[in-house]
Write a structure and sequence with these properties.
Structural class: mainly alpha
Largest sheet: 3 strands, antiparallel
Helix content: 40-55%
Number of strands: 3
Order of helices and strands: EEEHHHHHHHHHHHHHH
Low-confidence stretches: 341-346
Strand order of the largest sheet: 1-2-3
Number of helices: 14
Strand content: under 5%
Radius of gyration: 23 Å
Mean pLDDT: 90
Distance between the termini: 73 Å
Shape: elongated
Length: 346
Amino acid sequence: MRGHEPAPTGEVVGVEAQGVRLEGEGLIGWDKVRRVSGPLEAQAARFAQLADLAWRARARLERGDLVSAEPLLEDLATRVGSEVGPTSRLVFAGLVRCRLGRGAVIAAAPAYLSWHQASGGDARYAGEASWAVTSPTEVGLIDAGTLLAPGLPPMWVGSPALQSLARQEWPKTGVGILYEQAARYEAGLAAILPRRVTSHRSDAERAGYDLVYAVVASRIGDEMERAAAREELVREIDQQPEWARAWRWAALGRSLLRESDDEQRWRGVAELLRVPAEVERVVPYVTGLAMGEAASALRELGDGMGAAQIAGEIVERFPGHPVLDWQGVRGIQRPAPAGSAKEGSS
């Protein structure tokens, strides 16, 4: 075994792309296997390069070297795909971590959906990526109660990168189809709200799917579907973890902004601003997105000063956030920094 892990006692009964199968113990990912002895040694040798790549990628992830880990993980992704198993889970959780680490939220979504497939819907695997948490207060990469990635909601603003992603092939799973349609809608492409899936592999997968469905339906559904989804998002919101409340408030606000009535749009702004007011640092991407949508809406509603103030706060709190490149925020005239008046002015 790699590192300081003790060698397993079970008999090796098979080797495959996902790892070594032990009698009574299931699969061990290739990132943990140094070598296989016995009758299957020659068969295992075919996976030696894959095992070495997986171990090197994991070692880099564990020491926080995301820049060096990402190309190894990209290579591995083409070798193992998103089939259910431990090596695929390592690869795609690692890619999510690397892409989020460099702010590539759009590119992280397909990697998350591949992890979701590779998990088999099993909540036990949500905590495998312990290397992804860098502080005791940080939200985990994957939530065990829903199998969702708190930092990757199906919420974006239009951009060339999103248009490119929206045109690509997406996993044809329940959650994957919802993410795809959400991306297509925000990219200005034809999008439809799919029929709700009712069969799931686990309670956690069901809970995650139901939340994603409500978020997406509240945005891309017709008037009645949006209203029904908002009712679902509000239900038991106070009992949700902080990241899920952020998702729900942001989704409620973005949904209300789609309505034609100004009173509802003002309510939408209020819901959006609950995110920075109550859970600002829990999911920074969601907070910045909510603030950007609120700023854009305020400008449309005639509150230019309020829009400028919020846009300036995004720059201060979340420099580099993708919402700053969105046309809805980019066109807002922000207040000049203190002390920036031209010399000699009175």
